[in-house]
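INFO batch 0412 | record 1 of 1 | parsing
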Amino acid sequence: MPKTTLPSISEIKKQFPQFSFAENEIFHWSPQDNCVYYDEAELYRKEGIFQLLHELGHALAGHTNYTSGIQLLKIEAEAWKQAKDLATSYGLKISNKQIERCLDSYRDWLYLRSACPNCETVALETEANHYHCFNCMQKWKVPADQRTRHYRLKLVNQLTN
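INFO prediction complete | emitting tokens
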């Protein structure tokens, strides 16, 4: 089977002139800058190209922001679908196993955020970054950015005895 040549960043930039592309330590899409950021050092590996195509997938899907953890998971899955289609156009294949591994990191992040700091019951996100445990009635707030370390700030307990 012949080895597939990875697309170059210049080839991708030329194909998608509607977006800016810039080097960064972290792959990400910025709708404010209309820019796909990428780690140049990772583009020699298939996984780096796949990550670039994933971020480009966010751009092509018009993702701007999210208001809940579930919505974030949905747009991540949409971006991976776009990336899988883009990869095919370059003669590459992103395996479902790799996509699920990436999505699992978001699922794990959502689970950690939703675990009650009081009783560890999985709770409901009642508004953006705010959770409410219906087991012990604890409320807490979590950071919006998925790249931040995980922590939960307890809000004043609303239990009345």
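INFO post-check: The longest helix spans residues 69-89.
INFO record closed
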